[in-house]
Amino acid sequence: MSDNIKVVVKVRPLIPREVEEKLSCQWRVKNNTLYQLDQNGKESGQCFTFDKVYDKDTKTSDVYEDIAKPIVESATVGINGTIFAYGQTSVWKNVYHDRDRRVTRHHSSVCI
Question: Which residues belong to any copy of the Kinesin motor domain (predicted)?
Answer without folding.
Answer: 4-112
